[in-house]
Structures are given as structure tokens and as C-alpha cells.
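REQUEST ID: PR-0412
SUBMITTED BY: lab tech R.K.
PRIORITY: routine
TASK: structure prediction, single protein chain
INPUT:
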Amino acid sequence: MKTSCFPKYRLGRVLGLLQIVLGALVIIVSVSSLYRFYSAGFFMHNGDICKQFYGVKDIYEGFDVMALSARVDQVLEKMLSLQETLESTVEQLEKNKDLAKTNISMLDYKNFIQQQVIQPLYTAHITLRQIRVPRIENGTTKEDPLINDFVTEEIRKYITPKETRVGKKNIYGIEKIYNTIGHGCVSMKKELEEYMDYDIGSFCKDDWNIAQNLMIKGCDPLPRRRCLTRASKLFQKPYPINESLWKIPDGRNVRWSHYSCRNFDCLSSKNPKRGYSKCTGCFEIEKEKLKWVINTTILTDFLIEDVLRVKPGEIRVGLDFGIGTGTFAARMREHNVTIVSTALNLGAPFNEMIALRGLIPLYVTLNQRLPFFDNTMDLIHTTGFMDGWIDLQLMDFILFDWDRVLRPGGLLWVDRFFCSRKDLDDYMYMFLQFRYKKHKWAISSKSKDEVFLSALLEKPPRSL
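STATUS: complete
OUTPUT:
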């Protein structure tokens, strides 16, 4: 008589034993969590700890206890789910009285243990290891920034300090790398966790608009993501450089899903849905060709040739800080000057337009420190974005950052900055406080109550 590979009820006994072990693990995790709370000093202040668990106070000495509690609940829920799965399996086995006659292969048995037991236990183990109770040093809590503020695992992995694998200081001379994430992200946890909710190694969602919204509201820089960026399904090779500068790109190279317009023809100045309202004519090349090269009767309109004549041969690299489709950079390229253009996709694909023209878009907001080293730019040009709506203190921070990256002898070209007449003196002071040399300075009327201001200023040496 053929003997079965599995003695009667052997699998049932194994699962029953696993239930007992799992129950013990749940008890250990619970006791361990209580001990870690106690060792961290949370039970020494009864009033505050009660407030933590009843929602009155979420932060305890700079530490987010509610987030830690959520992590512990996650572990317990996973272990409880595993226990329920095992109990259900045991019940099914008990219904089959003649277990010895069931046809269970060794492979099925192995897969069951791996998928239904080992993998859930491993997931709970990893989740438990991600719980970080702050260190206690000199009576105060110490923890790595932001880790316990978020629940989404991918965010926590990103902001966890990365130590060197060889146990020595890295190339920067430090022991850990702290990935950057804007402090404003804490106030936008829901949006950031949606942004970081993806399958690692798979395709990202078409959610660039969520990322841009986070950036604009101060969650900048954003964390890197480990998913593949989507491109247009109909992407075509761009035009050659001798054509692309002054030709509307192929609309098939843009993902239009988050715009009111669905093609470049729609982005006409006659269309109220074109996007950023201040950028009149931005997507109309024939109108763009007239900028900075044709004399006008307006005093505040400077020509590129006149500006370059101030520093002949010295202007090589620069920054165009504003909103547009790269026309200023295209014109400067004709004079062998390389310009990086800042851009946000405010209702229209400004970044794609600049890149498809063969120019360099820099995707930054007003919130962010410029990613250039000190004293490196020959020219900073600004138009159409930073105008009279801006807070004076914010403008002060921005101008000092421009001064930082502009080299001695470099030029600041303020192009048609507009504001109300009553605020003109305040904004004039903001530009003049750096004691730059005036090469050009002009004011003209924009309307009854508003004025334009244009200036060409040279940064002094300030040698120490």
C-alpha cells in the first residue's frame, strides 16, 4: 500500500503551531511597543501623553507620537490578518477528514508557506523595523527629521539617512546622506503621499500637475521617485536646431491631458483658455520674433544689441527668470550666449515648448534657491513674472539670491517690471539697495495707476 508523503493532519498541526507562535508574536510586539514608549519617556508626563492619544496634541517634544502609533497599528493589523488567514486554512483542513488522501504536492506546500506565512511575516517585520522612536539625549528627544511625520513607506525610505556601506565617511566627508525634502511637505501630507504612492519600477501616474502644485505651495524640493516617467504615445523626433528655434513644435510630443487646450494652435492670444494670462503671444512665433530686436516708442523696451554693447564679448552664460517659451534664450543664442530659462507649466506646456525649441528649461519656483554656484552668471534677465504683486520681503530674498549667483561685473536686466505708482518707491529701493552701477534706467506709464520700470544694472566687484 502506497504511503502518503504527508502524515494525517501533519499540515494541520503545523498551521496550529504557527497560530500559537503568531499569537505569541502579537503579544511580544505589543509589550515591546509599550516598553519603547516607556523607555522614550512618554509615560513620565501623563497629561501630555493622554492628549497625544486623544487627538488634542499630536506632537510631543518635536516627535509625532500619532504617526508612531499608526505604524504600530499597521504591524498589528498585518499580523492579525495573517492569523485570520491561518485560522481559515485550518478550518478548511478540518472539514476534509481524510487529509491523507488529498493530493498536496511539495511545491504547493512550499508556495503556501512562502506566500501565506513567510511573506506576511517578513512584511510585518520590515514595517516594525521602520518604526523609529526618537533617541533621548540630555533629557530631550532626538530624531532624524520628518521620518515619523509620514506613514507612506516610500516617503520614509526616501528621507531615512543613508549610511555608507563601508562604515567610513563618504566623498563629501560625512557619514550619512540626507535626501532633501521641503519642510512645507509636512503641511501637505495627503498630497505628497498621493504623489509617492506608486509601484516601484513601474510607470508613474500622469500626475505632474500634483508635483507642480506641491512645489508652488512650498513642498520643494520634492523627493525623487523610483518609477518610470510617461511620455506621449505619439512622440516624434524634434526638429533640427536650425529649424526648431523659430518653429512651433510638433504637438504630438506633449501630454495634453491636464490642459484646457489640446494643441499649440489653441494657445493663441485670442483664446482665453491659453493658460498664463500675462504671457500674451507666447505661443505665436511671429509675434515673439519682434521682441528685443525692433525699436519701439516705449522707453522701457531695451534691445538685446544695446545691452550686449555695454559688455562686449563678456556675456556668455545667463538666466532668464520669468515665464515664457524661451524666446529670449533663442535670441541670445543667435549672439552665442547660452541662457537657461525658468518655467512653470501654468496652464500650458511651457517647459516642453522651451526644450523642443532646443533650449534649456529650468523647472523651479519662486520658493527655491537657485541651483547655481556663487558668482557664476554673466547675466540675469527677468520679465513677466515677478511684478508688483510680490511681497517685499520675499522679493528681498530672491534679489539677494540673484546677487549671489551673478558674477562681479555681471548684468541684471530688469525688463518691464510693473507695479502701482504708489508702490514704485518701495520697489525702486529693492533694486537700488545693492548699489549696482546704472547703465540704463527708464520708467513709463502702463495705465493711469500703474507704471513700467526697466533697468540695466552692473554688480560691483566687492573684493575683500
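NOTES: Residues 181-230 form one domain.
REVIEWED BY: pending
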